[in-house]
Amino acid sequence: MISREKRIIRIVVFIIIPLVSFLCFLIYYSILIDKNKSLGNNQIEKILIESKFELTIENKNNKPKITPKGMVWIPGGEFSMGSNFDDESLCSIKGVTNDARPIHRVYVDGFWMDKTEVTNKEFAAFVKATGYVTVAEIKPLAEEFPGVPISKLIAGSAVFTPTKIKVDLNNYLAWWEYVGGADWRHPTGPGSSIEGKDNYPVVQVAYEDAVAYAKWAGKRLPTEAEWEFAARGGITGASYIWGNVLMPDGKFQANIYQGDFPVDKGDTAEDGFVGVAPVAQYKPNGYGLYDMAGNVWELINDWYSEDYYQELAVQAEVTRNPQGPEKSKYFQEPNALTKVHRGGSFLCTDEYCTRYLIGSRGHGEIKSSANHIGFRCVK
Ligand SMILES: [Ca+2]
Fold first, then answer.
1. Within a domain: residue 123?
2. Hey, which end of the chain has fewer CB within 10 Å, N or C?
3. How far is the CA of 257 from the centre of ligand 1 (A)?
4. What is the pTM of this model?
5. Which of 187, 154, 367, 146 is nearest to 276 (CA)?
6. Does some domain include residue 27?
7. Mind listing the pLDDT tens digit for each residue in 246-284?
8. d(CA 335, CA 328)
9. Which structural domain range is residue 34 located in?
10. From ligand 1's centre to the CA of 275, what distance in Å?
11. 8 belongs to a structural domain
């Protein structure tokens, strides 16, 4: 026989507590739904206008004792992520920079990050150890590109090809060409090589190539929030990774593009380099990270969605360790599977995309690669 007290305890533990918990969950969920429903366009516009940078609060004393080779500790903490600049990029595509609005509050845990972008030497060691073959080296399948003649299905990748004369900047296809035989060993096509370029960032790698490298190295690709926290280097709300002035003491702080874009011999290289530069040629940011602006774009683990920041801003006051949206969303290519890219490249210019500004975002199709896209890892 079970005593009366034991019966009451069982009823409380197995029926009443679960029932009350379930009811609490339902009430919480309905409040959340109502909150989101009630946020009409006017309120979203208000959030966009009023969003601003608030102080970065770094975690303290959380650095592990052993430092992995080539990496620096990013303490993580709470920070304001995004951008308010309508005109942050002078890209001629209207509204293209709205994806970095509003500035919203995010928390990330501490993590290790590669000091530099992954170099040709490092990527070569991975390929030697594993026999890995990158996406650009594999002939595309006919089912992936229905309608394209078999003769056109050749292994290759996108290469920046300067134009003979000034062109309309609305059409990026004018200076990008799909080049058969372009891959990480031949960044601009069969006639090019990486000989003597061990210390240059590897390029012509697609998202899955970067993920494969990271896995081999015991690392992973950063989330977009981790990348931006790291890029800000502990400074609250600066425009650039080095501060708010583009050229302190009249000097460029990153490998970007000066002169006529995208014209042949138009790049005047006032920053010291035409095209891609070896890693770590400029001062590091506050966390000791090199080239978080310019040189090559960096592949990010998150899917790209143009609305993602708005969704986060209305869902929570502080989003903890965001991992990106569940699927990609890009108004110009609604069917593309698109991942985030960050940091800008040697092709960023005031005439075109000023994406070396910290808050601005880039993105690319998951299988694509180019000679201005690389990556770095975290762990
Ligand atoms: Ca340059």
1. no
2. N
3. 5
4. 0.86
5. 187
6. yes
7. 899 999 999 999 999 899 999 999 999 999 999 999 999
8. 9
9. 4-48
10. 6
11. yes
